[in-house]
């Protein structure tokens, strides 16, 4: 079953056309890596998928929701579609547990005890059970990012979007965040991730999508795509970007 359908999406900022007719389909449980040069439209595409940006034309369906402007519909969509950014955006004056419990308490009709149980469960998933009562500034960058992922998971999303979640981290901390994402993938989460970690994309993503100048330039099963790029643009990108 398709969990994400993007059909001929166009998006401009003023005179600048950033997405020029993008289409892709992600099946349930698939992991898509979005790669491409800076400015190719990766973040914009991701942001369109949960309504942070409005498309000019085209159709997006995600986690059973048709993307539309109605704020109520958007709120419903966002309980099923988690997004995590490079910056963790945790509330510094709230503990880890409180950060995670905030959204479910507001959006979902659950008791405090239930949200506590959910928070403990998702913290365990990201390997941070013992940090429930810590404040964000008492954690490393990698730990904070894992809390940000846990916070998204607390909403029980059907689809997770990740935009360069490891870009601000040292290699060692990057590794611990990637391990959490790999675990999520093997648990069957449908995921789309923008990443510069080519090794991770090749190993974990079922498909990789190479964006270039606002279009999907190449797309295919990750291993084949990296091993045999068909276009000179992807060949060049893979050569210059492999760490
Ligand atoms: N809110 C905005 N207003 C105007 N222009 C924007 C806006 N957001 C993005 N752009 C422009 O759209 C283009 C694509 O940006 P986008 O952030 O999607 O690229 P990207 O592929 O994610 O790049 P990077 O790898 O650097 O994150 C860029 O030229 C950018 O300047
Ligand atoms: Mg980006």
CATH superfamily of the domain at 2-87 and 159-241: P-loop containing nucleotide triphosphate hydrolases
Gyration radius from CA atoms, angstroms: 18 Å
Strand content: 25-35%
Across the major sheet, the strand order is: 6-7-8-3-9-10
In words, what does this structure look like?
The chain has a domain at 2-87 and 159-241: P-loop containing nucleotide triphosphate hydrolases (Rossmann fold, 3-Layer(aba) Sandwich), CATH 3.40.50.300. Helix content is 40%, strand content 27%. It has helices at residues 42-49, 71-80, 96-107, 112-125, 141-153, 171-186, 198-204, 222-227, 232-241; strands at 2-13, 16-27, 31-36, 57-62, 65-66, 81-84, 159-163, 190-194, 207-212, 215-221. The strands form 2 sheets. A 6-stranded mixed β-sheet has the order 6-7-8-3-9-10, sandwiched between helices. A 4-stranded antiparallel β-sheet has the order 2-1-4-5, with helices on one face. Helix 3 packs across helix 4 (112-125), helix 3 packs parallel to helix 5 (141-153) and helix 4 crosses helix 5. The longest helix has 16 residues, at 171-186. The chain is globular, with a radius of gyration of 18 Å. It starts with a strand and ends with a helix. The model has no long low-confidence stretch (mean pLDDT 94). Adenosine-5'-triphosphate binds at residues 13, 16, 18, 36, 38-44.
